[in-house]
Each structure stands twice: as C-alpha cells, then as structure tokens.
Specification:
It comes from Devosia nitrariae. The protein contains eleven helices and 15 strands. With 384 residues, it is an alpha/beta fold. The longest helix has 22 residues, at 80-101.
C-alpha cells in the first residue's frame, strides 16, 4: 500500500474553522485526521503541503517511522505549527491502518481498557446563580465532573484579573456549598493569571472547594508553575497547548501537575500521545484530554482514552439546555461519536469510526477568525 494524495481542508463548520486532512492510498483506503492549532490553520496547511512532498509514495502502515521523519528531517524541528500538521497526518494514518486490518484504532494502541469514556462538561453562564443552576442541570444529566467558567471579560474586551478572581472565588465557594462534595468541580483560567494572582485566587477559597485548576498561568516557564505549586494544594490540569513529549517533560518529571490536558491534534497525534501517557503513568498523572474541535478529534481521543490506564475524563462540548459534540455538522460527518448520557461508548468499527462527506466539505469556505484581543483597563494587552 502507498500514499497517493494528502488533502488539507481548512473549512468553517458550525461556529469555527476545522482543519481536517484526508490521506488517500492506492488501495482505495482513505484516512481522516484533524489539526488543533485553532486560529492559525493556514500556517498548518503550509506545513502539511511541505510534508506531502515526501510522503507521497510512502507506506502508510509505517506510522512510527513516518512520524520520526516528519519531525526530525529538518533543521528547525518541532514547534506547534509542525506538530499540529504531524498530528493530523498521524491520526489519518491510524485511521487507514485500522481500516486495512479491519480493527478499531484502539486495537493498534494496545487494546481497550474501558467500555465507555467518562466526560466532563462545562457551564456556559456567567459567574453567579445561573452558573450554579447550570451545574445542577448537568448533574441531573449524569455528569459527575463539571468545569466552571471564571468571571470573564466585558463586552469591550476589558479583562481585569484581580476583579475576576474575587468574583470567581466567591461563586466557587457557593457552588461547592450548593452542589455538595460528591461532584468534581474545576475552573479553567485559560492562563490569564500571574503566579501571585493565581495563588491569591486559590487562597480565597476553603480547602476542598476545587478538585482541579486548569491552566491558571502560561506554561513557558515550568519554574513559575513550581512556585505556584508551593503556594496552593489545588491539583493542576495543564498541557492542552503542549506540542511534544519534551514540553511535557519538566511538568511530569518534577511532579508539578496532576492532570494532563493533552490534545492529540496538537501534541503529535496518537503516536506522541501514547508516549506521554506512559510517561505520565509512571508519575501517577492522569490523562484529561483537551477536546474542543470536531468529530475526528473526538473519535481519535476516544480511542486514546480507551487504550490508556491513567485516564480521568474527556472534555465534551456539552452545555446546559443543548448538547453539541465538537463544532460538528451531522451532514458533513454522518457517522461520528455521540454522547450517551455523560459518556462516549467506544466504537468497534474499523479505523476511527468517523465518516466524512467530502463533497460537502469542498463546498465549505475558510473564514479568518481571531480570538478576542483582551486588554486591561489601563489599555495594556493581556492573555486570551
């Protein structure tokens, strides 16, 4: 079997772009992958086009060797753009291999270790009574792990961290009081705080209020996370923006965090994700995958979650009052993972278990999109 074509499709689906990638073979078996570098899809398309030049004619079954060649056969190795491109191709190659062998992808990763994949859901309302009511609705729907959103920016794009942490801490305490101790509660601060601000936020709440704090500060300096670790006992959930095993290295080896928010569409695909999972298992760090994209990302992550021992919850885009699974379109993705209550069943069909209507994909267009560029009240730029 040989690779005959690689087609990147950066297209607007639902309310955002998805970069999905089709890999074709001379035996008629095709695979689908997805890249996770949201907002910079055109950059990833360029990297995929470079890789395509030497992947055409190669054996798609040699996934590990092709991963090494894509990563190492250039002077400027690594980086989020390149590993996002590698991720999409790697996932598509797993899809091809599973279909060629007639097995689901999890069989390529060591076999299934669980029957279904537990998920966590997120409230969408602002900090306040609405947030607590939405959490109660999610609990009634079967969720035992819920992520809360902190007080956010205003309509002008102004974000003041100190104001946010004061308001968020107050309502997190009330949420714990009303929701009880059995539900897992976490907050995603989207790396918008400094070390001092994050420590202050944690210290404003009684011990046991939060079960995890997600991405409180930026990740470039592990030593900063170590300083924050000394100031709070709240477990950290970090890593969704990590682009390699090497980026995870200091966090795992120094026991800085407790949950890996790994993204299979950014880290280097399933090949790299499995290496990070094994490494994490040795340090008793659970995998808590990032899953904000479309059905291909969800399917690939379900197979990953089914195959690793150290797993907690998979992110799902479920909101009170409506359920949606990635920014998906049932016509574009007629076969895809669907939530059953608060869990995903592990598919047993060959490959990923996703079907794509390529004719409809070709009819979609790409739209340039920018995340909000936030400022503090004094006009200075702050983190999105």
């Amino acid at each position: 079997m040989k690779i005959t074509a690689i087609h990147p499709y950066p297209v607007w689906v639902g309310i955002r772009n998805q970069l999905i990638v089709k890999v074709e073979t001379n035996e008629g078996i095709v695979g689908w992958g997805e890249s996770g570098l949201s907002g910079r899809e055109k950059a990833v398309v360029g990297a995929i086009e470079h890789y395509r030049e030497f992947l055409i004619g190669r054996d798609p079954m040699a996934i590990g060797a092709l991963w090494q060649e894509m990563y190492r056969s250039q002077y400027f190795e690594g980086g989020r753009v390149l590993t996002a491109a590698i991720s999409a191709i790697d996932i598509a190659l797993h899809d091809i291999k599973g279909k060629a062998l007639g097995v689901p992808v999890y069989q390529l990763l060591g076999g299934k270790q669980r029957r279904h994949i537990p998920t966590f859901a997120t409230t969408r309302g602002p900090c306040g009574p609405e947030m607590i009511e939405q959490a109660k609705e999610l609990m009634a729907g079967g969720w035992t792990a819920i992520r809360l959103f902190p007080a956010s920016h205003d309509s002008r794009g102004v974000y003041e961290p100190r104001a946010s942490i004061a308001e968020t801490a107050k309502w997190c305490v009330k949420a714990r009081e009303e929701l009880g101790d059995e539900v897992v509660l976490g907050v995603d601060y989207h790396h918008r705080l400094s070390v001092a601000e994050a420590a202050s936020y944690c210290q404003k709440m009684p011990s046991g209020t939060l079960d995890f704090l997600e991405e409180p500060i930026r990740d470039e300096t592990p030593e900063a996370y170590e300083a924050l670790r000394r100031m709070t006992g709240v477990p950290f959930a970090i890593g969704e923006e990590f682009a390699s095993k090497w980026q995870f290295l200091p966090y795992i080896e120094r026991d800085i965090h407790q949950f890996n928010r790994i993204d299979v569409c950014n880290v280097g695909g399933l090949t790299e994700a499995m290496k990070v999972a094994g490494w994490s298992e040795a340090h008793y760090v659970d995998m808590m995958p990032h899953n904000p994209l479309g059905p291909i990302c969800t399917a690939a992550t379900i197979h990953f979650a089914a195959s690793v021992a150290n797993f907690s919850w998979l992110e799902t885009r479920a909101s009170p009052g409506e359920l949606y699974h990635g920014f998906d379109d049932i016509e574009i993705f007629p076969v895809q993972p669907r939530l059953e209550g608060a869990v995903y069943k592990v598919p047993d069909t060959p490959g990923l278990g996703v079907e794509v209507d390529e004719d409809l994909v070709k009819k979609q267009s790409f739209k340039f999109w920018e995340a909000p560029h936030l400022q503090r009240i004094d006009g200075s730029v702050t983190n999105w």
